[in-house]
Design brief:
This protein is of the alpha+beta class and about 525 residues long. The protein has three domains: about 180 residues, no CATH class; about 90 residues, no CATH class; about 210 residues, D-amino Acid Aminotransferase, Chain A, domain 1 (2-Layer Sandwich), CATH 3.30.470. The protein is built from 17 helices and 19 strands. The strands form four sheets. Strands 14-13-10-11-12-17-19-18 form an eight-stranded antiparallel β-sheet. A five-stranded antiparallel β-sheet has the order 5-9-6-7-8, sandwiched between helices. A four-stranded parallel β-sheet has the order 3-2-1-4, with helices on one face. A hairpin with a 5-residue loop joins strand 11 and strand 12. It is globular.
């Protein structure tokens, strides 16, 4: 496995890569150069992506380039960079190279764990084509920003790409930071142009839903300040007297932690309701993120702007999502559907997901998502993204409301990629079913939030030993079992993720419950 001790010519290091030689971030020159670099992606997609024997390099930048103050409320946020270790499965292509950059070094035990899962490739062969590069920086700033502060590290990334290989960047989300990095490296990003970031905000999502003619909760978008929130919350109640709660959302919130909920008082209406909202909203709104004060939430709102929408009620309610991809040819694909598991008092925080979504509506939401994806395609969107819904059963039919577009990878990206890479199976868009080449149907339950204080102190090696001893580890022959991720967060935070694969939804979830039982028994939890 290649590591940090690359053979670097000092003259080349100091003179070839010079910040002053690159256009200023955000300048017209940078935008022009980025557009030129991106043109190569179509050529790569047509000629090299389909060829498993092609010489190519994937530079993985798992940076969560999101608001760092909100992200800081997520336990073990730094270790979310490990979720894209699923892309090490690309090393199953015998001439592919992967360069994986992280804030801090990743335990070799974790790397070996992933490489052991590779079908048809020895660990030694894969290690020869893997380069791990670390910033040695655990500070709370996006990984991409850390990389841009280190010209020597950028040069290491460039030198890790064999001259005979085509290369592209795979990242969690694409912002101006990733655009600048692409220009510095001179290779394209398989992701959305940062200039289209508005389309993935809460306000931009509502505009896309309107263009696609897809139902969404009543509400208002493009709100800029506290007074806008007051008027929107009041107007929403005026127009829809039966609603009980409203949700206030930051445009760039994620995982539900950018939301706040307000409960309307009973028996008030008209001017009395408006007066109550005007005088009490500040005290009555409850941010979803733990330890995020109302003051900080409103400061973030003025920076990011946001929306207000009705909280969708229902006796039988689910939270499905649809994962889509727009490739460089402009083809729109439905990749998967999930039923999200949400927690918290108001069910706003993502904790896990069942794959695929319930059979009674998964094709319905896929059709709705495709119409939204067509709108995004016409705006120039590229790469993977997801669309979240709230579904309520009314009598014998489901009613679906589009909630938001996540114009990036998300919590359901890496579980599906692991399933796909490990089994070489196929998702059928028409039926919503995933089948292996031998026609076996597979399901999974995945979570990024397996968390217990009793798990603190467990090392990656401990976890793998426990899984092996109890027969939980993924079995390539049976094509079912448990895979772990975010293992680096376990010892300090008692937190990790897992993907539990089975031949039915029930079996997949049974693996999850069994794993929790085993871990609790082993740790006294």
């Amino acid at each position: 496995m290649q590591n940090h001790d690359l053979d670097i010519n000092p003259d080349r290091l100091f003179f070839k890569h010079c910040r002053d030689c690159k256009p200023k971030p955000g300048s017209a020159a940078e935008l022009e150069e980025f557009a030129k670099i991106q043109q190569d992606l179509s050529n790569q997609f047509e000629l090299f992506f389909p060829d498993n024997l092609a010489r190519k390099t994937i530079v993985v930048i798992p940076s969560l380039s999101l608001d760092q103050e909100v992200l800081a409320k997520v336990t073990g946020a730094l270790h979310y960079e490990e979720r894209l270790l699923c892309l090490l499965m690309l090393l199953r292509m015998p001439r592919a190279n992967v360069v994986y950059v992280s804030s801090m070094p990743i335990d070799p035990v974790i790397i070996d764990y992933y490489l052991h899962l590779l079908p048809g490739i020895t660990g030694f062969h894969a290690r020869e084509r893997l380069t791990l590069i670390s910033c040695y920086d655990s500070s709370p700033m996006p990984l991409t920003e850390k990389i841009l502060q280190r010209p020597r590290l950028i040069e290491r990334i460039k030198q890790a790409i064999p001259e005979c290989n085509v290369a592209h960047i795979a990242c969690f989300n694409t912002t101006a930071l990733e655009r600048t990095l692409a220009v510095h490296l001179g290779i394209p990003i398989y992701g959305c142009d940062p200039s289209l970031v508005y389309l993935g905000t809460k306000s931009g999502s509502r505009r896309a839903f309107m263009k696609a003619g897809v139902p969404m909760p009543p509400g208002a978008e493009n709100l800029t300040c506290y007074d806008d929130i007051v008027h929107a919350v009041s107007a929403l109640k005026d127009m829809h007297p039966d609603i009980k709660k409203a949700v206030i959302k930051l445009n760039d919130g994620f995982s539900g932690d950018g939301n706040a909920v307000i409960r309307y008082p009973a028996k008030l209406s008209g001017k009395k309701m408006f007066d109550w909202i005007h005088h009490n909203l500040y005290k009555a709104m409850v941010p979803v993120a733990k330890d995020l004060s109302i003051k900080m939430f409103l400061e973030k709102f003025e920076l990011m702007e946001g929306i207000v929408e009705a909280f969708v009620e229902g006796d039988e309610k689910t939270s499905p999502s649809v994962q889509c991809r727009i490739n460089p040819r402009g083809d729109v694909d439905i990749i998967s559907t999930h039923d999200q598991v949400l927690s918290g008092e108001n069910g706003q925080v993502f904790v896990g997901a069942h794959f695929p979504a319930d059979e009674s509506y998964r094709t319905e939401i896929a059709i709705m998502a495709k119409s939204i994806a067509e709108v995004l395609k016409n705006q120039g969107v590229l790469g993977r993204f997801s669309i979240d819904f709230i579904s309520v059963k009314e009598k014998d039919a489901w009613k679906h409301y589009a909630i938001e577009i996540n114009l990036r990878k998300g919590g359901t990206t890496h579980p599906f990629l692991m399933l796909q890479f490990l089994t070489n199976g196929h998702y059928d868009e028409a039926t919503g079913i995933f089948e292996t080449p031998n026609k076996q149907q597979l399901y999974y339950f995945a979570s990024d939030n397996v968390h217990s204080d009793s798990y603190k102190g467990l090392t990656p090696q401990d976890l793998i030993d426990i899984a092996m001893f109890h027969g939980l580890h993924f079995d390539g022959a049976a094509q079912k079992g448990v895979m772990f991720h975010m293992i680096g967060a376990l010892s300090q935070y008692g937190k990790m993720g897992m993907v539990c694969i089975g031949t039915s939804r029930e079996e997949a979830y049974a693996y999850y419950k069994r794993t929790i039982e085993v871990l609790d028994a082993e740790t006294g939890g």
